[in-house]
Design goal:
single chain, about 230 residues, alpha/beta, Rossmann fold, 8 helices, about 35% helix, about 20% strand, disordered N terminus, tRNA_(Gua-N-7)_MeTrfase_Trmb, tRNA_methyltr_TrmB_bact
Amino acid sequence: MQSTHIRSFVHRRGHITQGQRQALETLAPQWVIPLKATSLNYEKAFDRSAPVILEIGFGMGETTATIASNQPDHNFLGVEVFNAGVGKLLTRIEEQSLQNIRIIQHDAVEVLQTMISPGSLAGVHIFFPDPWPKKRHHKRRLIQPPFIELLASRIAPGGYLHCATDWEHYAHQMLEVLNASPLIDNTCEGFCPRPEHRPLTKFEARGLRLGHGVFDLVFKRNEEPAPKD
């Protein structure tokens, strides 16, 4: 019997523009990697050898494209399920002539289980995941202990996990879950200032002007796991 897990998303009938639809049809064969039941060969997928950063849930891809442009010496693997977001990032890749981004359009848990080898990632970005604000939906939140143990196992020693959210309750849940993992250590005392590699989005800037807090957490994969209380 196949094991199941709580997905971090629900399929919604979101609007997709003609441009995004066209990008999916014409650009996906070049930049989108299909799900396979074998570990991904990064060097073959990116046509070069470079540290790989995984981004889970890149939305419309604005931040992904900016970071990839600013860090040409890294490869970026984006995982997203929604057509509109994938189509928009494909458009950004084409418009900005970015060569260091690849996309997998599938559930992140299954991607981690089947395609990402243990200890192979230089870093992971999870920026503003769905907060599922209603209490009865909290179980759908992405940052849960089983997921973090799986994710942390895929990060190389010395690599990092960077999460960000603008929901304070979720931020404290994230901090509790991450602190409990024996595989990763907090690089700050609690929350961190926004690292330079994460650009300030228009949405975030507007929230800050309105007094909304944004919480960054940056954890490092340790060399030898130590028990945590």
